[in-house]
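Structure tokens
________________
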Amino acid sequence: MNSFPISLLVTEKKIFLKMPKIEADVDFVRSLRYSHWNGESFHWEIPNYPGNLDKIKYYFGPRISNIEETSQPESPKEEIFIPEKGQVYLLKEKGRLTLRFQFHEDLIQAVKQIPFYRWDTAQKHWSLPYSPKYEQEIRQKIADLGLELIFREKTESSSENRAKLNTKVFTKTCPPEYLQKLRERRYSPQTLKTYSALFTEFINFFPDREVDELNEKDIMDFSTHLVVNRKVSSSYQNQAINAIKFYYEKVKGGPKKFYPIDRPHREKILPEVCSEEEVISILKNTSNLKHKAILTTIYSAGLRISELINLKIAHIDSKRMQIRVEQSKGKKDRYTLLSTKNLNLLREYIKVYKPHYYLFEGPGSMKENPVSYTARSVQAILKESARKAGITKRISVHTLRHSFATHLLEHGTDLRYIQSLLGHESSKTTEIYTHVTTKGFDQIKSPLDQLDLDD
């Protein structure tokens, strides 16, 4: 084992990992959310989220030959959309414009016509001072050259009410036995990440006490803190309570207990849905073949974003006209629809892009080392297409899944079939779409219209 040494550099925000290319190890690193391969420096970069360093130490064990920790923050390197050939990524933030694109001589010359332009060698992008005039000039040049614009505007969020959690002051890490029990019970990587982060927050709320000394009152105090001070959602609070219960009941083997906590009910929030006309407009405003195939597949099959990026070519069953979704939420397999139009589009896409393993692969993917597309890139694609379509409502990739279900319902599909296609455990989850659909609204008259208000 020691013939394959592993080295780590741990900074405030990231963990830099150097290791030999072993398939099982690569799979483990990829399971850590937002990890990515730096092909220039030949190392993995992993966010230093609570619990990530513990997971890495536990997994590699004695194979780690060197761990270097530094409080010096690394140069900022934002996780952003990486443009393909024929695309230009334009970011507007803090009084400047940032452009990323593959080499294009005419566009480079246009950038150099703007005063005070700068090429950032480290970040590999062009930087320009912002003004409406400069932005319009760049947009016009991109259009004249027939390039696809991927535009994003970064603003300070004014809607974030939750008090930010300062993990820098944490002195305790998630117990290894907690992580091990989650793995033994085959919890998904996402649940493992969520539970370990929540439990780490809990034990650090009591920095001077051992975890096994904490009691029901402490759990209640922590729950109150989440609501009153952190102003978290009911979903967050419920997950935190479940993460704590997991430790005392599953890890320590204690009896199932009811904690006298005012556990919140989940807020009744109706999902945002696009009309059929808006979906048409989004797809028509997606000119890139790969991007159109991605958004079309999500909408036509009602997929979650995680299901889309984990789809493999082998999961497309053109004979039965089905898409197989493996080990999704709740560790369940299911089949969903493969539309004829989507199949034709996928055949055209595969002929051009030639993916090896995943249906949609990211930059640098190779036959011997396939890399799936990232969720962040899918989100950026939809955001740009919605902007081009002139859609101002706040939509996400999950909105396409909600729209799939709502449109099926409006066309007369039985709720039980929709439940199966979406992979919902309970029919109550699917019934929410009955509150969203506009079917039949045109047959209902407001009582105001029945009143004779004429003088």
